[in-house]
Amino acid sequence: MSDTATWEPVIGIEVHVELATRSKMFCGCAVSFGEDPNTNVCPTCLALPGALPVTNGRAIEWITKIGLALNCDIAEWSVFHRKNYFYADLPKNYQISQFDLPVCHDGWLDVDADGETVRIGIERAHQEEDTGKSLHLGDGGRIHAATETLLDFNRAGVPLVEVVSRPDIRSAVQARAYAQTLREVIAELDVSDARLEEGSIRFDANISVRRGPNAPFGTKVEIKNMNSFRSLEKAVDFEIKRQIAELEAGGEIVQETRHWDEESGVTTSMRTKEGSSDYRYFTEPDLVPLVVTPAWQEEIRATLPELPHQRKARYIDLGVDPQTAGALGSADAMLRALFEETVAAGAGPRSAANWITGEVVAWMRREDVVGIDVEASAIAEMIGMIDANELSTSAAKDVLDGILRGEGGARQVAESRDLLQMTDTGAIESAVDAVLADNPDAVERYRGGEQKVVGFLVGQVMRATQGKADPKAVNGLLREKLS
Questions:
Q1: What is the pLDDT of residue 1?
Q2: CA 192 to CA 201: how far, in whole Å?
């Protein structure tokens, strides 16, 4: 495919978030994942004649919460519209959604990508209802190859928030970072479980390309069926290259919806993309307008938790390096609490963050556990022993293993496993002398100018002392004696 250097991608992302309310958007049916098909339904969500919708107040509270977290302006007055289109999993043949008067508008989200922070505009976040689910039976589960299609209306009417970014994203890497960052915010707000594998958060990407930053926007194409962050990045990257190749070959880009095929790694055409006029929006006559007063906004704002980017900034202020602060700021609550408690117990923030995001997480992966029950004071004690040269870094990893297995505090584990660092300088010097005597060739090579042989000799001393000698002390003694 063509060189992309002279082209600029223009990307916007639509994110659909299923809210984890107890009941659906406009009826009292339960919101529950994994139930038997068509068991959480009623006349309202099945659109039977005479059934009328009633707005879910908790859903409006939660979309306001999302909007505030995304720095949006909150409309004091907004309305629902009917979005008219026909599809088998849409019971009413229209979707209750919002058009020109959404609840949230004109926000932004800062995203870290490619070593820089990029501000992505949020055009709107509006409230709507989800559709049912179609199960296409046949080769590959695709509609064009299906022998029959089954419909499950359990999802029909589930509260859905659509967050629409502005076309501010300029690469596939930025697209992935935006999606990950937004998902972290949604999960932190506790308004959705935000699980990609269950479809409770879904991403569609609108992509076009243009000749440089001052050229008019090109024709955009919407990409669907991206069920992981990796898929999103790959699909956006492929589509950018496909459009550039098509244009440079003299072709045209058609405004359409395309399907991402994970197995083949390509996008394929699904249907011609509709414009807003095709949906024939008009105000929903069965619902009153939504009113979110300034006083109610402030009540909701007071419930906002500390968000990942805010935690990252606070951890950096504590002295944690930015990369580790970002990882820890986005980590699950258990690891964050362990960090906070370890620092409170006296450990340095940088050391605590490095050990928890590094060795603790690595231990959990090796042991295939999702949670640990450990006293933060034990980890703080271990870090203190390292700082006091009572433990080497390698020995501390063994001590941490013992702590995480419930063998006791750091000193107790270090003593029981015989891991305390040697403090007897005479014993260390004897070990150094013995290694030098046993390796005369290495000594001659060093004196001949081969400096790197010191590393070999340090290793021999550490082996002779079973890893208990202070490597810095060993290195200093070796260089002194070799000189």
A1: 45
A2: 8
What residues does each domain of the chain span?
A: 8-300, 308-416, 425-482
Asked if 378 contacts 400 with a C-beta cutoff of 8 angstroms, the reply is no
425-482 folds as Arc Repressor Mutant, subunit A (1.10.10)
User: What is the rounded distance in angstroms from the CA atom of residue 340 to the CA atom of residue 338?
Assistant: 6
| HSE-CB for 290 with a 13 A CA cutoff | 31
Compute how many other C-beta atoms are within 10 angstroms of the C-beta atom of residue 136: 16
Q: How confident is the model at residue 365 (pLDDT cuts 50, 70, 90)?
A: very high
Q: How many Å apart are CA 229 and CA 262, to the nearest integer?
A: 12
Q: Which two tokens stand for residue 420?
A: 């305390």
- Give the rounded percent of residues in the chain with a pLDDT score beyond 90: 72
Q: What is the CA angle 131-136-138, rounded to 5? A: 175
Q: Is residue 482's pLDDT more than 50?
A: yes
Q: What is the pLDDT of residue 375?
A: 94
Query: Among 46-50, 121-125, 139-143, 169-173, where is mean pLDDT lowest?
Result: 139-143
pTM, to two decimals: 0.84
The per-type count for the chain, helices as H runs and strands as E runs, is 16, 16
Task: Tally the C-alpha atoms within 13 A of residue 331's C-alpha that lie toward its C-beta.
Answer: 26
Q: Which range among 114-123, 309-318, 445-454, 467-476 shows the weakest confidence by mean pLDDT?
A: 467-476
Distance CA 436, CA 454 (A): 11
From CA 319, how far away is CA 13, in angstroms rounded? 34
> Which residue shows structure tokens 């098909």?
37
Residue with the two structure tokens 């994942």: 33
127 phi/psi in degrees, rounded to 5: -95, 140
The pLDDT score that the predictor gives to residue 433 is: 86
DSSP string covering 47-110: T-TT------HHHHHHHHHHHHHTT-EE-SEE--EEEE---TT-TTSEEEE-SSS-SEEEEEEE
Tokens representing 361 are 């997480």
User: Cα–Cα distances in Å, from 274 out to 90, 225, 278, 418?
Assistant: 17, 18, 6, 71
pLDDT tens by residue, 145-194 = 678 889 999 999 999 999 999 999 999 999 999 999 999 999 999 999 99
Bridge partners, residue 113, by sequence: 116
Q: Is 205 helix (H, G, I), strand (E, B) or coil?
A: strand
Question: Would you say 172 and 233 are in contact if contact means Cβ atoms under 8 Å apart?
Answer: yes
Query: φ and ψ at 425, to 5 degrees?
Result: -65, -30
